[in-house]
Amino acid sequence: MRIFFIGFGQAGGKVVDMFVEQDKTHLFRAIAVNTARTDLLGLKQIPMKDRVLIGQTVVKGHGVGTENALGAKITRDEVDSIVTAIEAIGTHDIDAFVIVAGLGGGTGSGGTPVLAQYLKSLYEEPVYAIGIIPSPDEGRLYSYNAARSLTTLVNVADNTFIFDNAAWRKEGESIKTAYDRINDEIARRFGVLFRAGEVGQQGIGEMVVDSSEIINTLRGGGITTVGFAKTEAVSQRLKQRQGSLSGILRNLRKKEDGAEQQLLGDDRSSKILSLVRSAVLGRLTLPCNYRSAGRALILLVGPPGEMDRKGVEKARAWIEEQIDADEIRSGDYPIRSNYVAAIVVLASVADAPRVRDLLEMAKETREELAKEKLDGKTMFKDGIEPLFGEETE
Ligand SMILES: Nc1nc2c(ncn2[C@@H]2O[C@H](COP(=O)(O)OP(=O)(O)O)[C@@H](O)[C@H]2O)c(=O)[nH]1
Ligand SMILES: [Mg+2]
């Protein structure tokens, strides 16, 4: 797919910078947007001219902190400068926009829903978001911000992929190391998914996935999670085996060749099934009840020789048993590689405990904030006339 990425805020900018770094085929277009100058300067790949600083007159390049309402307001006021930067690179022949942001902060959290809505009003192409949700130990305010942002975002974006920081942190790891590793993980998973649907260097195969298959999978909206698993290609293992002495001896026994081929075929298809299974049952970008997905897409990535039909059919049948999805799609993304990977998109998920917790926590926080406000005021309501301002009731 030809994607136009917008990295919004610090986390968003860093992840999109990583997408660009890993995109050897130059399929992706990208800009970064922020209210904090230093965050923009910290990026490596995105050219300076494609980094947009907004809110200069308001926060003087120092960022909005965790005030996502301010992030939203600044974005509303300066959305035209973002569109100008997008148009300077060009939007002809793109398949979709993808806005990436950490939803717990201020700039990306507030700005992403505003920009998504605006892009939707301007362009025909779908607008997706990758929303990174904060780990609960970041504190209630971050969860509150994320819940407010996400609630708005799911109503405007065509689909929102969720990545859960909490599920991907390792114990004892510093935040910086964790983020570097996690950002690499995000860019790798979604990078492969978003590159699929392009005619690669391997030419066109019958089952090669088309961009429209991905778009149709995401059409249901809501939130989406992605599973991934990879393994060494069978042909790669065979090559290694043939290189060894025992392999050479085995090749001398020509009669067994047929049997070996048969074994390889079975090996390939059972490997594809187990890959798809590990992708779904392993760690998802958003751990959730995968059975509640409304649509699914199985994407096989690797050398064309590994794309075994029987394996894909088995994998599809397995997914059909597992989830009550309306639509299940599958396709190949042939690339030159020593690995075979399976990506499973579980779209429009209805049951995600982490998101439910986030919304619950935000509700409590809002009630507490409201109560604090009320308490603070009622204390001063005992018959003393204020000097000016509000009328006493
Ligand atoms: N995965 C990942 N998450 C991050 C990173 N930096 C910050 N976050 C998350 O994103 C949230 C928002 O932070 P930040 O992007 O700095 O906010 P903003 O610049 O105001 O949009 C934080 O609460 C974290 O949960 C990062 O580099 N990688
Ligand atoms: Mg920050």
Descriptive overview:
With 393 residues, the protein is an alpha/beta fold. The protein has two domains: 3-195, 3-Layer(aba) Sandwich (Rossmann fold), CATH 3.40.50; 223-347, 60s Ribosomal Protein L30, Chain: A. Helices cover 49% and strands 18% of the residues. It contains 14 helices and ten strands. The protein has a ten-stranded mixed β-sheet, sandwiched between helices. α4 (68-89) crosses α5, α5 runs parallel beside α6 (140-156) and α10 (234-243) packs across α11 (245-252). The chain is elongated and about 100 Å long. The chain starts with a strand and ends in a 15-residue tail after the last helix. The model has no long low-confidence stretch (mean pLDDT 89). The protein binds guanosine-5'-diphosphate and magnesium ion. Residues 10, 105 line the site of magnesium ion.
